[in-house]
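Re: beginner question about structure tokens

> Can someone show what the tokenized structure looks like for a real chain? I only ever see the sequence side.

Sure, here's an example I had lying around. Input first:
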Amino acid sequence: MNYSILDFLDLLGAVGLFLYGMKVMSEGLQKAAGDRLRNILSAMTRNRFTGLLTGCAITALIQSSSASTVMVVSFVNAGLMTLAQSMAVIFGANVGTTFTAWIITLFGFKVDVSVAVLPLIAAAVVLLFVNSSRAKSIGEFLIGFAFLFMGLNMISSYVPDLQSNPEMFAVLRGYASMGFGSIVIFMLVGLVVTAVIQSSSATFAIVLIMCTKGWITFDLACALVLGSNIGTTVTPLLASMSGNMAAKRTAMGHLLFNLLGTVWCLCVFVPFADFNAWLTESFGQGDPNALYGFVTNLEATDPGLYNHLFDNSLPAGHDVLRRVAVMQMSVSFGLSVFHTTFNLVNVAIMIWLTGIYVKIVEWLIPARKGEDDEFTLKFISRGMVNASELNLAQAEKEMSIFAQRVSRMVEMGHTLIHTKEKSEEFNQLYSRLEKYEDISDRMELEIARYLNRCAEGRLSNEGKLRIGGMLRIVGEIESIADCCMGVGKILMRKVQSQAVFTEQIYANIDVMYKYLEEAMTMMLAELADPENVSQRSLIDSYNKEREINNLRNTYRSANIENINSGAYEYQAGIYYMDIISDLERTGDYIINVVDTLKDTARRAGA
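And the corresponding structure tokens:
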């Protein structure tokens, strides 16, 4: 097999075309679907069974479980799908991938979508010149789809041609008579080959060639197919490396599904392979074990005829050619039955254990201790979904996480007020507050940069409005963090001046914090689902802001009387009022976030 540097560079170019096609297709799809995508995904994954059907249908259409699983990992990374929802879709993807095997079995070839690529581009270019923004987006989607399959077709052309060089696998013949050890070895070979060439369909074709040459029996062919199921998990695992914790857990769930399925199958492998051979005969396709016996007997009794069979020198219509073709069909059908039966049984078992799966995956990939105290962006660190509309969904999720971090600063400030001054606990809490404030500055900057990058792409009018609103909200959230740090600085000045707060001051501050924390909770709920903020929630937020303002005014008036009456010292009153004013400003920033959410929703719906 000759494989040059130029072939390798061609392969890289084909991969580049494939990735670019995926990017263009995704962007076009998201611009055409917009925010409806979240509703579509929600409907498709409403329960484990609809998720299962979704994964099965998508994989059957695109004929690649790796591609569909990478897509699921991307959606989880974007926060559009939960880990539990993704598990059901991945289970379905494993069933859907058997569709390709049946196409090869029944028709002898894989559906060549690349035939329609140029007509598809021709139709798409017409849409690009239509005035409708949605039509242009559909045109982009079709062009991306065409490029994607052009890339796939070229990748298969420039990958080292293992299928036409089966002699590379002749050495495995020596490991075909080791009992159960052979089954494990051939399963591992199927895993490695599929992981390298990233095509279980190509592995399927190689297995068929090895059976035809009489190198392996039907049960060892089944072991190779079993290993290919694990090999397909490599691509999602690699894709998840640049994603967040949820994306890594999703890819791990895919691997775990196939690993656990392989374990139970190995435990009953011989009777399970025999059962599938019986099924094949029951469908009238003959005994898939017959090919191995026929070819090995031919090699032993008539080596010349055996060699002619595989150097294509036998005349068309020769009796041996016809008999081998019939038995090849039997093996191909049997392998498809095995692949399908394995995945159906696996799904039938695992679909009821989705909750346990999620817990196992979370245990295998635990959240890092203290990760909330570190600067980590959960959804947009190196965003895996390049489509602009989905990028906005990622940014919304990150913005909600940002607000949750800052809400902890509100709690820290309240705790700091009641912590013994000059103690180790006081100093540690103040340092933690400083660290969180630094994190908030950096998060604001990174989210703003991310939104600015989103704005550089083509967006719907609604998307542009959302970016403007999110930029303002991020700034307001950071201002809340500044106010929380401001409380800490006031307390440090109070400690240095040795001012003393009375029980009444502490009680008043506690009431102010109670109102503020209630307002913060309302804001967090609204940010968690910005598209469905109710009128009742908005009214409650505005009422809470008025209560905070009224409380500030009440305390300010009472403060002058208390100082004059000697209830506490003037210096203590100054620091007390500084804290109250700081908390009132925090309430202002909270209501600014609520205002922006309301305005963005109103303008988007106009």
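Each token stands for a local structural state, so reading them left to right follows the chain. The CA atoms of residues 63 and 100 lie 6 Å apart.
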